[in-house]
Amino acid sequence: MMLSERIQMLIHATELGGGSRIMRNLLLAVAVFGLAFLYDIRAYRNFNSPEAMDAAQVARNLSEGRGYATDFIRPFSLYLVQKHNRAANPGQILATNMVDFAQINTPHPDLANAPVYPTVLAALFKLHTPTWKVETRKPFWTEGGRFMRYQPEFTIAIFNQLLLLATVALTFLIAKKLFDDLAAWLAAALMLGSDLLWRYSVSGQPMLLLLVIFLGLIWCLMKIEEQARIELPDTRRLFGLAIMAGLLLGLGTLTRYSFGWLVAPVVVFLVLFGGARRTGLAVAACLVCAVVVVPWIARNLAVSGTFFGTAGYAAAEGTFGFPGTRLMQSFNPDLTSAYWVTPYTRKLMENLRAIIPGELLRLGGGWMGVLFLAGLLLGLRNVAARRLRYFAMLCLGVFIVVEALGRTQLSSMSELSSENLLALLTPLVVIFGMAFFLTLLNQMNVPTPQVRYGVIGLLVVLACQPLIATLLPPKISPVSYPPYYPPEIQKISGWMKPDELLMSDIPWAVAWYGDHQCTWTTVNSQYEYFALSDNLVKPVRGLYLTLGTLDAKLFSECLQGGVDSWGNFVLKTVAANQIPPQFPLRVAPYGLISGLFLTDRQRWTAQ
After folding, report:
1. Packing angle of the helix pair 18-42, 195-203 (nearest 10 deg)
2. Could you tell me the residue range of the domain that residue 580 belongs to?
3. Helix (H, G, I), strand (E, B), or coil: what is residue 147?
4. Would the pTM count as exceeding 0.90?
5. Is the peptide bond before 482 cis (omega within 30 degrees of 0)?
6. pLDDT tier at 6 (50, 70, 90 boundaries)?
């Protein structure tokens, strides 16, 4: 065959044959990875969320063989572990601190994080061990000799962006099964153009892993509903799908504990649309979920005497008994108010007033949320789509209540939080919002196909406008300062011996960047501080306070905060140069740019 004929056949295959599909897929892949590259260059940011750093440092400990332990020590965690161990060992000497009831002298068990996400990150660190030390010379990680990016965080971001692509693919498959190719492609495009999901991808939080699990659960429920409508369904396949749904529900619960409340919508959906085997399917899903979750609950009970560790007290955080982060910073908390109904009722109503007019109207990024809510009034001919929309509405109601009760200070300490359960509904909001839009478009008197495509393109641009604005100049700085400056945190941690305890107002960052055990600042700088430092086998040897405390409001937090508040402590130490006479940490270095460091002796002369 002549060369010209071969070239002609290749062109024909590319334009009309199977080569055209390969070419389209190749171009699509290039476009998607080009978008990811552009986002990472222009909009990537280092971690600014306490829960992201917390999960990452637990994952590192797990990958390095230190067990499911944490270097971010919450005083409340010390209280729970100490109380449990003292009750379990009544014969031990209690009058002194010679017995390590709080397990501070050994790897302290983590009681805050559900285990799946840190375990996944630990596996990632095993496959590709990043450089833990801050890079100060190599390009990309630095610019002009200044720190810019932390390699382990960038590794986690790339992993989460792969999960983002998985959510886009799953959304496409679900939309295609419910509607048609056009709706599926548009839903996938809007998911890929969601600024919220891209920000979650670099936040280090488990939201995208939760989304993959949630979409897998939805797929199982759709297949169960489809099988149940068949005259003679395959019973073995039905129960296999129910078992898979229960497994995903359990994994989701062990990724974010509040995800477990989805058991209610799942059971209702199976009972209503599971066909003749509805009860058995619901029981099977619940039993499998319990089998997955119960071993971890048993671990928590063995370690702390609680079902979910410190995370089980999320509803109590933010009540009038424990405003802000007071509960987690308390070494001797009075939990009397935690058993009242009134604090939870007030917290529920206050947060509902913020969620309903705020986050509810921003579902799916704004425009899609409005279309989704409006589309609830539209009847759907597709039975599967109609029933899945009922499931979405059940999830919406459950998530609103659970988020309102479970919201803690984490939601205000960073731009994003995995406490935002409504973000999990983004794929369903996009799918049903787009279906409503296409229904309206089909009823419009559009003169030409070009105009129709123009209207669709306009909606896509409007829905993706936040991401477009993010990618436009000016470029976002990747450094999350204030208050996090990793080079200085690592320098301060390096001044301490490995077995010495630090205290900080950003202990999650010290644990992550500094790889050093660090406790959260106690509720106050006097009684609670000395109760913690003097009653542990490992006293506090260093205090690191960042601009979060140094920039406290003068009147409300320093002067009115009480004589033993950390704001008042900083005011006397920095402004008046008067460290309280009984405070044991009195030596400070010069030249820190990110905060105040006090210790018991001069440690930096040899550095």
Report:
1. 60
2. 481-607
3. strand
4. yes
5. yes
6. low
